[in-house]
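Chapter review: from sequence to fold.
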Amino acid sequence: MAAIYSGIYLKLKSAKTSWEDKLKLARFAWISHQCVLPNKEQVLLDWVSQALVSNYNKKHELEDEVVEKLWAYLDNVIHSKRLQDLLKSGKTVGLSFSVAEIINKRLSEAYSEKTQQNIGTVLSCSSGILSTPSLSIIYTAKCELLVDLLSKLSKLACQQLASDDAVGSQLFNVLHLTFAQYLLIQRQQANPNRVFGRVTSHLLQPCLLLRHLLTVRSWTQADDNHVCQHLSREIRSQIETLLQAGLFQPELFSSYKEELLSEQESQEKKKGAWKTLLLPVNTVQTKLGNDLCEPALHGAVVAGSVSLLYKLFLDSYCKAENHLVCFHMLSRLFGCLRLSDLQEEGKSDLLFPVDWSVELLALEQLLSLVLSNDIYNVASDRIRHKEVQFGFYRKLAQMLLTHSQASIPAWFRCLKLLMSLNHLIVEPDLDDLVSSAWIDAEASEPRTKKPQEVLISTIFQTYSKLRQFPRLFEEVLTVICRPAVDELRPPVFSAGLTAKLRECLLELPPNQILDILCLFVEKCQTLIIPAVEGSVDMALKLMSVCSVLHAFLFNMRSLDDVTPSPVVLRTQRLMANTQKGIIQPLMELLQAPRREGEKSELWLRKASDAALLLLYTWVEVDALFGVSCSKYVSPAAETAATEPAARHWGISAFLPGVKDQSWRRVRELASSFASTSKYCFELLTLQKMKMMLMQTEADLQALQHAAAFILESGRSTMSRGESEPWDGDISAITELSYPTAHWHLVMSNLTILLPYISLKDVEYIAKVFLETLMLAEAQEAATDQESSISIAKISLGFIHSSLLPEMRVLHCAFLTHLIHQFAVVLPTATKDSVDLPLQQLSVTNIPWHEEIMASCKTVDPLEVPSENKVQKDELSLSWKTLEKVAQCIVLLAKNGCPVILKERQLQRCLDLLEIVSLLKLDSFLPSDCTRCFLVLLSLLVNTRASVSCSKLLLLKVLSTCLHLLRCLQAGRNSNSVLKVLHASDVLEAVMTSQLTACKFFTDVLTGPDWAQYVREVQEFLENFLQMIIERRQSVKLNLEKFMSFLVSCRPDTGAAKSIDWKNWNPAAEQLLLTAFTTLCHVVTLHLQQLPEKKLHSVDVFCALLEPVVLQMVRTVEHGLQSSTPNQPLPVAFIPSVTTLLKADLSHPVKKDWQKEPSGFLKRPRVKLYQEFYSQILKELPCAGNNVQFFQLALQFLTVFCSVPELCPEKETALMVVFAIKKLLSGPAITTQVIRSMEMELIEVLVQVLGNCSDEEFYAIMRLVLQGLEVRNIWQQKAKEVLSAVTITKLLLSCPLSGDKGKAFWFASPQIITALALQTKEACQDQALISIIVIPILETVAALLRRGEGILVNPHHVSLAFSILLTVPLDHLKTEDYHGVFLGVHEVLFSIVQCHPKVLLKAAPSFLSSFHRLVVSVMHEGRQKGDRGNMDEFEMILKCAHLVERMYTYIAAEMEDFTVFSAFIVAHYVTELQKVTLHPAVKTHLTEGIYHILDLCIERDIKFLNASLPAGVRQVFKDLYNDYNHYHKAKKQGEEKYTA
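The token string follows.
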């Protein structure tokens, strides 16, 4: 046969053979063993290479289809297993360099043609060549070919990223591989100049463009996920490595230095050197020129590249002695930006806003690098370098302030960085800075507001430390007094700036603060006040000045008794000047009579805002100083002394000398528009209330009038329902933010207002409170600003606080309005709507809490006695109404007259129920608790959903009602409900309504919402029945009535006493079974807890339960018979049958009950249990990931298997274990699901193994060992392995004695060997780490712990080390890493604790395994720029703590391990030298290694100092010094005082 095919080579070379035949022959020759050619593989590779080379060199013109097939043939050969096997065997097979040339040529053609459709095969070929060492030599031996390939691939990648097409992974995989190969070659190059030339000539431009496009790409779902998440990041990292190693090698620094230093210095050192010297900076600048990329991208690419190149330059060359060179590099790179053109005279601002943003971002990054690397030393620059750096930064600052860009965040950040470098850089232009970046800046967007606040905070902090705050605010005042750029200036202080100002003011000397305040007051008196009338500009200046005075006076340190007297006297003069020089003239201006048209003028509004803001500030601060400082005398005290003593408590009390009539005019003016002045008037009124309350005898009527005024002031604006968030700045209140500010004032001062407002006002507050809560979700979605205050946030915060339950009047009124909203939602069911329960419960003329409200009603003390007389009658009236409503609800439920709700009404009800759930239901008083209970009960039993409603929505409403009813039952006043209702009536009404409602739910019985609903029904019944029993009143009667009701029910339409089973409803059936089960469970629990004296009650309750149990049996039997074939059992059946079986087993059973049918366990009942058992075994593996089903099914199996006589067959144990094995190997089963049902699995196995025979146990062990066979993982049956590993672990948790224990431990060597093989195979696939490897580690740890004293062969224990050394600890997902780390640690700890003898013999393996843990936790716990997810960091800290624990245990318990202590320390410091650990991680590891150092003797320390390399030795010295200083000294101190 060999002779037949030996002529193939001649046919391949023959011109007569068609290319189609040649390709067929070549394919056959490659795969056939019958074709014998000398060096066949090389011959065929040479043939296809020659054919392709000839085509591209134009020797043979081939058709495109033939060329593509040749490429495909070459690709198949390169990737074939045959070629890989040949290369592994040592045979030499290679390609010619011309193949690399034609690959590069083909890629170049694809780039120029702008089509990448037909290059997939070529890319695959290049990938195969580069990943095969013997083939990749065609690139690695001729570096220029590899550079050319990298350049072409980068350009192709740029082309693909710039297009609108989806990004695929093939090109980027090849690019990633090519970068890796080139970086390997680049490191081996000896000539740095050649590398620099190669990089700048061929790679710099495509790499910079590629990095930019990868950074700015907006990834879509169509793009390959691997490229988005992994490759893009990896390639950017490779580009940075390539540029750093290519452009900034240490040998090139002299060239950079010569070029960057001034010409005079360079000529002094080396004249005429410019001709021969490499000019690296000039070369890089040239490459950043216009030919870098297309013009549209050029600016953005250069801006992004400049900061990268400077960062790489600093990483390579930044040392203290090179800082000047680093600065000159900065100035040269800055020259590449378009911003540098703006510094030249005569250049206009030609940049668009988008360009400004990019350029400023690049400048920010450059300045940030200068600051972080400490390039600019102020003293050195001034003394040695003639302020060359200072001059550069001054020009930058001038350019930034000349071309203000307050809409761009990076502009503020650049100025902030310049301030951080040296405040003198911007000091000459401080007025322009204050104006353009603060006072006149329009930075309204959150993204610009935050950097603006950071800049101004930096200015505050700088001038505060320099004690030049007055100098700063002189400029602020100058800017404020200039003509405004805009008619309406933004507020001077935001909330963030106010907080920063407060910090600075607390550190400043009081006299400096007073200097600033006096300056502002004087300027206001002399410049603004005389000219404010009729001038909008002056009114705006006045507002700005008053807001600054407000901010300073409210945030400075208060006077107290230790304040020096001169400061106190100066403050008094300031307060007097403010009052007489500003406030009184403004008040006189405002109280002048005006026509209606004049009142709306802008200047008057602003003057009113400023005057009342300053007045409120003055009053508040004056009162505070008077209280906190005994030396302070209020300026108002002298005037007040001349006033009549019996002066009425009006607003005019704040400014004696101003008449009430004048104040009335001011109030009318302030109240005519919603703004700062109106809000300040409310604050003044509140301040008046506080001052009255501080008197010994408060004026009750004045307090009531004041409280009423505050509420009335904002009533009209609150009723409009229009508002916007408020940032808390009083001076910035607008017409739309006023309602928010007013509501904030009311709700935050309710404790003061509530005792003095009328019932009508209480109801008004409750009404608005409820309305704002109902709109809360919509408003929260619209206003997503964290720092701002919204009406919704205020109301939500109040309802979440503990204040509302304390304000019982408001609590009651709120509940009344809430019930009224429910009544509004429900449509009228009958003509006589007064009889509807919800409307009766929300009637306002019934005094629901008259004992609390009496104090609120009482305005005249003379009315109190008359109210006390009727109190008892009114009290009984509210309870009579409650009783009447309760009977009405029960009657409506019995008569079946529900209200039909549409979906919109149902959703509205759900929203209101969510508000109810926010209330603290336990805090309700008895009548409120009863009212709330009746509302929820009425909703539950007397409402139905229309047919078109969403069933899931209805289920949610019913579940919420039941949940809230249960919460009310758990409250302290739950018994009050039973004053107006019989317990059995409640249970009957609830069950009747729910059984009727169940007809809607027949098609949603498998969803989680139904399961949640059934759980709520069960918990409600359980709690209510428990309450009946604990109350000990009519227990037997209530239970008997409820039991008889349940027995009479049929799961059809829910009607009682129906005997027709045709309309059987499976949903109602589940509900009925839930009720039966819950009743039996509660009553049984009660019987078990009865004392011996009351044992006669047991027979009574058993007699009551018997019909329930019988009915339950009938329901279960019928449910099983009528269930759809191949459909899973409803979850509700399982606890019912389990409860039945427990009830049956609790009776005394005769030994031969199976032979005597007259026993309590009747034969039909036995058959029922056995059928159910069979059904459970059948369904257990098919239940997906339904944890609830698993838990209930396993609980049934636990009870069933505890009675061996029930088991239908002998091999029950094997069948159960087999079913569990199938369950655990299901596709939906995860390790989380297994953990959630681990306890139930153990309980089942304990019963099964306890009652099975030895033969059955042997069969179970064979089943486990079959699952552990390594062929399972080869056949992709990972879940089979998982099930066997899990069962092994579960068996270790069961008590195994006698022959069963012997059998298990006899098989344990085989088990641990199988686990080692499984681990080795599973670790090759990262996806199997969580599925197999982590459970194996947990099982091995359990096996070693249980095998203490049993596993005597050291070899079997040391097999665990082979598992640990196989498991990967790097490149894992976070959750996988934690699981693997914990597993490895637990295995090691099990060996250390339970097998110390083996450990000493296998010390190298132990140290290697433990050292891997230490290395991995150091790598994961190193310091990073962005710490990332806090949960991940917490996990790393836990791992570090485990390492510390192991170190500590080794030092404390393993004396024989002392000899290895030096090696452990050496390992630790060697790794520590490579990374910079996060302080928290380092703390744990250091504490651990200190304990190992305790074991080291002097000889070990000398050995370490002598043998460690230089860098590592220094790390060890630092560690040992810290050990002596902190740990050893502390230890010796503890030993000194230890007995």
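Two observations follow directly from the output. The chain has a mean pLDDT of 82. The beta strands are 899-901, 943-945.
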